[in-house]
Design a protein that fits this description.
Elements (H helix, E strand, L loop, with lengths): L6 E4 L5 H12 L3 E6 L2 H11 L2 E4 L5 H15 L4 E4 L14 H29 L2 E6 L12 H21 L4 E8 L23 H13 L8 E4 L6
Organism: Pontibacter locisalis
Enzyme class: oxidoreductase
Family: Belongs to the short-chain dehydrogenases/reductases (SDR) family.
Length: about 230
């Protein structure tokens, strides 16, 4: 697809991968809206980027519906949904609670699914669209303390595969991007970005992977793509 003049919605676009992706796609001529739970931070990021701000929580089904409505009122057409919003926590198995799973799954799994459900209705009417899901290499390679987060990303992977089978006949491309560790604010209570490290991935590397996946001619798509740091040690 052509990035220039495409209408793109990015959840969790105020920081990290979402922010870097919005910046790159806007530079390439796209019309971009970003969502974020913190209204002040969302509007500040949007001003810096030149994006449309939508203060919304993907874990709230009513916010999901409002997000799509505000986007369509502004642009009239949706070309790309990027399911980027995500949270995580690390706990050993003996410390796990149901509340831990509910908190993370409401954002990482249920939120992404409800955003995709709304987008799919539009894409089917258009007979065209793109969904990019941000997963994780943790989905296929768990780690100590990763029961909640890794399993949430495994769910994203499974949903992506299901949506691919459902939506291909409607000319909708669904792609999963699996980053390894990225130096962002992810997992930090203060939501401040971590300092970039020369041997670690940044949001920019994931943004370029997303851009590359989208720019493939519409006759083809990348089902799943992993991005690793070359030498993180």
């Amino acid at each position: 697809m052509k990035i220039n003049n495409a209408n793109i919605l990015i959840t969790g676009g105020t920081l990290g991968i979402g922010h870097a992706t919005a910046k790159l796609l806007i530079e390439k001529g796209a019309n971009v809206a970003i969502t974020g739970r913190d209204e002040k931070r969302t509007h500040k990021a949007a001003r810096e980027l030149g994006a449309l701000p939508i203060a919304a929580d993907v874990a709230n089904p009513e916010d999901v519906k409002r997000t799509i409505k505000e986007f369509m009122n502004e642009y009239g057409r949706l070309d790309v949904l990027i399911n980027n919003a995500g949270i995580g926590l690390s706990k050993r198995v003996e410390e796990l609670t149901v509340e831990d799973f509910e908190k993370v799954y409401r954002v990482n799994v249920f939120g992404a699914a409800m955003m995709a459900a709304q987008a799919a209705k539009i894409f089917k009417k258009q007979n065209y669209g793109n969904i990019i899901n941000i997963g994780s290499t943790a989905a296929t390679n768990g780690y100590e303390g990763g029961s909640v987060y890794a399993s949430s990303k495994a769910a994203i992977r499974s949903m992506t595969q299901s949506w691919q089978k459902e939506l291909r006949k409607h000319n909708v491309r669904v792609t999963l991007i699996n980053p390894s560790e990225v130096t962002t604010a992810f997992g930090k209570p203060d939501r401040e970005e971590r300092d970039s490290q020369p041997n670690k991935l940044r949001g920019e590397e994931i943004a370029w992977a997303i851009k590359g996946a989208l720019e493939i001619d519409d006759r083809g798509f990348i089902p799943e793509l992993a991005v690793w740091a070359t030498n993180p040690f």
